[in-house]
Model the fold of this input.
Amino acid sequence: MTRVAAVDCGTNSIRLLVADADPATGELVELDRRMIIVRLGQGVDRTGRLAPEALERTFAACREYAAVIKELGAERIRFVATSASRDAENREDFVRGVFDILGVEPEVISGDREAEFSFTGATKELTGRTDLTTPYLVVDIGGGSTEFVVGDGRVRGARSVDIGCVRLTERHLVRDGVVVDPPGPEQIAAIRADIEAALDLAERDVPLREAHTLVGLAGSVTTLSAIAQDLPAYDSAAIHHSRIAHDRVREITEWLLRSTHAEREAVPSMHPGRVDVIAAGALVLLSIMERIGATEVVVSEHDILDGIAWSVA
Done:
């Protein structure tokens, strides 16, 4: 066993996994997994830069994670940064700040590499399942981008496109610094148009329609599962490998798009940091299901973070 720490810093959240990994047996024993909403990508789509307050929120989370990593005695650390830091002109400020706190330089990875990590993390434990048929389409709906990977033990195609719950919300639903609540038909149509254009791009490299099982990752999808199950609180065990039918995804998405901030905030399983961006994330998932004709989505709590941990081990 090798004790590893993996950090995934995305557009909306920063997450930590400390685990004991055994590459020989394929076993990953989780010791600590946590997530903090830092909204690193605040305003990046508009300004091209990481905001000072977003950087400070992220560095504060890094300090908390550094204490956990030290306490648990991880031997190796890998810090991967994704969409927001790829796009920012001042990403060197981010790199220096993380290095000063954690002693490792964040790797600002490509979208394709991000997709590969997500695929490994989501599918490694599905090997041998008789109730799920391959190939899998793994979809990781993040804050700034969505990754698509089709594979069946090997990756057949991967592509990252710039549609994510934060990016789409800021692009189409923010007026004078405030999220329009609820959005009108024209705004929803504009989001839909961006999603469909991005799916066209993804299909150039990824055989989306060849997949037999759709696997959905990240906070938008896991929160939809919590809502679908009417959970009294967010419950990772209940969410992991749950399934949501297409009609239920459509029903929840339509409700989210017509709901108010207060109504969404009242959902007991909803993280406060997702209240304003969940509708856009749900619409991404629904559009993907409609595009490929998926009757259901299999929800995974294991994703890019687990893939990063395996890469360290």
Observations:
- The first strand starts at residue 2 and ends at 9.
- Residues 151 and 195 are 22 Å apart (CA to CA).
- The chain has 13 helices and 13 strands.
- Residues 52-72 form the longest helix (21 residues).
